[in-house]
Protein 1
Amino acid sequence: MAAWGARLAGVRGVLLDISGVLYDSGEGGGKPIAGSVDAVARLKRSGLKVRFCTNESQKSRSRLVGELRSLGFNIHEGEVTAPPPAACQLLKERGLRPHLLVHDEVRSEFDQVDTSDPNCVVIADAGEGFSYQNMNKAFQVLMGLDTPVLISLGQGRYYKVTSGLMLDVGGYMKALEYACGVEAEVVGKPSPEFFKSALQEMGVEACQAVMIGDDIVGDVGGAQRCGMRALQVRTGKFRPSDEHHPEVRADGYVDNLAEAVDLLLQHVDQ
């Protein structure tokens, strides 16, 4: 227990992944992971700052938050850092006009962005939209540019829903990188800029924050590279082999969010 005290001392803010930590998405809005609704409520009552940091790119923030609230979570849209709004800001700042290879559910997030005569490609978790025709169109746009720009809303390999594991955007991103000889710019975890944005919105320094996620690379590794501590839950996409990852080791492994919150509330002030 003393080791936990040392690992969690000085924490003032908590970043929470959503899918695989709070709930498993799926038919009917998904299913909360046991104990997670109460764990979020206890965190918020504790006085610790809390922010939700997700790579969700199949749903708008408003729909995602609506689903979570219907499952009992105390969460508001302004507490969520997600890739689509960050990508829109980047596009506007750089004068980029995207060809969108995204899920229909998030297309509205780009309504204020000029998509005429594309000079870049934005790829997200398009789900069934990852057809050969759509991938090939994105490939053709990139190959037609003197300086191709590929922006990806995350680079996850897979994620978990109630029916099982699902292929994520990372594999499709890598296919376009390989075919076009371009390196994608990632907006979302594990991008340092994405984590820094979440920390700024929460108002804490990296050394005062802990990330809780189910992805050993995207959540844990990404947070640690920003100077944060990170715990991995054994829910969602967690695999036993994650605890022996050759490059990333979490600051702690816990069975679920409820256990992580128990430890935080016991030790953060020590």
Note: The two ends are 12 Å apart (CA to CA).
Protein 2
Amino acid sequence: MPMAFSTHKQHQHLPNLYGATAAPPPTPSAQPNHHTVTSSVAADELSNLLHRLPPTLSLPKRRSSTSATSPPPPTLSFSDPNFNHLLLSSGSELGFLQLTNHDIPSQLANSAETESLSLFELTRDQKESCFPKNWPLGFDADDDDEEEEDGDGKGESFCFDTECSTETTTDLSLTSLREFTRALEKLGLKIIDKLADAMGFDNSIGEDPTRFRSLMWISEGLHGDHDKPSGGFYPYVIGLQYQIRCQKYSLLKDSGSVSVSPQVDSIMVTLGDIAQVWSNGKLSKVRGRPMACLGDGNKSRLVSMSLLVTLPCNSRVTPLLPEVVGEEGTGDEDDESQVCGSKEEQEKRLFNSFSFEDYAWRVYNECYLFNDPLDRYRI
């Protein structure tokens, strides 16, 4: 039985690293000519100093506070005969890609977005009473942000399973969102199957459909919002996000933040922390869901719909290593080399096994902008 948890979150606020420094006011001088002479002498001394600098020495540049911009995401299509190889290559180097020539129509994505926006038009009481409260499902709000009277506050999110069900009978229709969620889930499981085949370990999606769990995470942002994602982080295998319009997204990597701009009507695929553990560290990962890069000024509304293919709460996470068959096995069931190969052939595990539920709760409630939550499980 899943553990019952409180949805109280621990918020961590980052200090302002770039405080404004005011220049000292000018000092009045009773000798105007003295000020002119002093400035002229100082300029001459500075000019002489710069001329004495070595030619290879340059003055330091101002540090930029913006995140690094990565090249466009690599583009993959299921029709490509080398899809598995390209998927593994992109996953190992970057941890994200954009998928084209998929079978999800843009009309369905737009209808799902319209229904998602209607969720934020509900009053606060409706948001809290109409949706299931079974963590992480349901409505969630950042209580540190002041709630506006019309209920359209910042830091709000909704999390649904594939049914996109409500607790009470309302006039709210989520038919398109439900169909959109199921279509993304089907595509996500297909990608996991391809990735498992490329990695060389067994994947039993067809034999055990309960092995995975899909969550549709919907959040709304306004221009000028802070960078912390609403709803917190949640571990996942892969994430899928349909690119409805030209929009830049920020991805949090272990090396820092990068921004990407997928093609319109493509699906951005990100590999999560569970995929990295399963691959025994071979795959790169993106921490959390992609965040829309919101500029200042225009107060337009924006909703993000992220489908996370993740695990049931009662799962255990451990590296999935390919089986190595010994060349000199006798065929006897007791012959260890027949099943696992020699010690030299076996791959060393880089992660300890851990409870997914404990890990998910910790990641959801703590801020991991700088520290990798997987570090505590590394061997």
Note: Helices lie at 32-51, 83-93, 106-119, 124-129, 175-199, 273-278, 336-340, 356-365.
